[in-house]
Amino acid sequence: DAGVIQSPRHEVTEMGQEVTLRCKPISGHNSLFWYRQTMMRGLELLIYFNNNVPIDDSGMPEDRFSAKMPNASFSTLKIQPSEPRDSAVYFCASSFVGWGDQPQHFGDGTRLSIL
Amino acid sequence: GQQLNQSPQSMFIQEGEDVSMNCTSSSIFNTWLWYKQDPGEGPVLLIALYKAGELTSNGRLTAQFGITRKDSFLNISASIPSDVGIYFCAGQTRSNFGNEKLTFGTGTRLTIIP
User: Residue B43: closest CA among chain A residues belongs to which residue?
Assistant: First the structure.
């Protein structure tokens, strides 16, 4: 079974550039989560969607960050403009919430470096 | 963001030894999960606990959901080299929309000394 697929796996870009991270959740899952992992702050939830609708974006650091889920099989996390402090590993996770809840399953992440 | 208190932060053990780690929280959770993360990969689910007091095993791994719903432990018996990695606990709550939110522990880094 295909797991959560993220792309790119690595991204190196200069400060000020726009960065777009992509995620394909597990087929049949109805919830999608974006996390950021750093040494200082650990794993932090940025935003999550249920049935393609953003439910809670209170973890999004600032207006430079935005996330969309145009359909059940695709989501993006965009940073514009990017800053060096945005450097981190960004994870996408998906799960099924409803009859027979399933735990969250994670992708392998995108390692983002902003120079 | 909020994090769970996980201990120890790191462990250095010899192959074959047993391992124990735990998480505590000031908040009650409905579910406790344990994940393992290898370098360059995402967290992988090891064990899920759904009821207070529940004790669950998965091979050499055993985890318990604390009776107060504010803590959980994970034990690994007879450690092997592939057990090396970072272990995270996660507490799960339900939002008003029925979605689960995970709060992660700070992680326990397990190293096996040759």
Answer: A106
Q: Give SS3 for B108.
A: strand
Residues 6+ apart with CB under 8 A from A3: A26, A105, A107
Residue with token string 């994870």: A91
Task: Report CB contact under 8 Å: B97, A103.
Answer: no
The token pair that represents B33 in the structure block: 């999960």
Cis amide prior to A81 (ω within 30 degrees) = yes
pLDDT digits (tens, 9 = 90+) for B37-53: 998 899 999 999 989 99
Chain-chain contact of A55 with B41 (C-beta, under 8 angstroms): no
pLDDT of residue A102: 73
d(CA A107, CA B71): 27
Query: What is the DSSP-derived secondary structure letter of residue A28?
Result: T
Helix or strand holding residue B57 (H, E): strand B55-58
What tens digit of pLDDT does each residue of A34-44 get?
999 998 888 99
A103 in reach of chain B (CB within 8 A): yes
